[in-house]
Amino acid sequence: MNNFSLPKDVRLRKRGQFLTLSKQGQKIHTGYFIAAVLNGTGKCNRIGITVSKKVGNAVARNRIKRIIREYYRHRKDSIPGTRDINIIGRKGLTTLSNRQIIEKLDKLFTKIAEKTYA
Predict the structure, then answer these.
(1) Which residues have CB under 8 Å from 51's CB, separation 6+?
(2) Under a CB-based contact definition with an 8 Å cutoff, are residues 117 and 74 in contact?
(3) What's the rounded Cα separation, in Å, for the pair 101 and 74?
């Protein structure tokens, strides 16, 4: 059961970490997501999730964040290496069903796993 948890050391939590990722990280664009990725210094992959007010109201934003968190929680071991990843949701996500969002995340995380980052 512990393998499926998402403890604090697996999440990006400080503003400085997000700023470093946005300035130095490589951007990966898909239709509904942007991922900023940078090789991490920790012992495991870390994830941060950003969904702005432009995407929708609080209920819609929280739904999207829950789906992304759950997706990552189940597939965090599929990404090789130690990387810091910030997933940014874009406009139009609220019109998609949960299954469609998961399909879009599959494409995004496949791109993340394939690339190498400096």
Answers:
(1) 61, 64, 65, 88, 89, 93
(2) no
(3) 15
What is the residue type of 22? Answer: S
Write the pLDDT tens digit of every residue in 10-42: 999 999 999 999 999 999 999 999 999 999 878
| Site of tokens 């702005």 | 52
Give this prediction's pTM.
Answer: 0.90
Helices (H) and strands (E) in the chain, counts: 3, 4
Find the CATH number of the domain harbouring 89. 3.30.230.10
The CA distances from residue 67 to 2, 22, 24, 64, 102, in Å, are: 19, 22, 26, 5, 8
What is the number of domains present in the chain? 1
Domain that holds residue 39: 2-114
